[in-house]
Amino acid sequence: EQDRQSELTQDEGEEDVNKEMLDYIRTLVLNLVHTPLSTALKSCLLLTPEQYKQMVEVSWQLLLNEDPHVVLSA
């Protein structure tokens, strides 16, 4: 029981030390995924039908990519 408690305490300590770094990485990843979508949504009122068509074509190519991270960005 005592060993298990010391393991829990050690894990909590590591999490506290890495909390700032983990928050930074989560924010960075969120911004990486969120920014292109946000830009596209904000520009919807200004896009021409031809630009919508181009955006759909690019998104489709991203969906067909082999890299799962690229697919998630589509």
From TrEMBL:
Which GO cellular component does the record give, naming just one?
A: cation channel complex
GO BP terms: namely:
monoatomic cation homeostasis
Q: Any idea where the Protein UNC80 central region domain is?
A: 12-71
| Protein name as it appears in the record | Protein UNC80 central region domain-containing protein
Q: Which domain of life is it from?
A: Eukaryota
Q: GO molecular function, one example?
A: monoatomic cation channel activity
Pfam families attached to this UniProt entry:
UNC80
Organism for this UniProt entry: Ancylostoma ceylanicum
Quote the PANTHER family the UniProt record gives.
PROTEIN UNC-80 HOMOLOG, UNC80
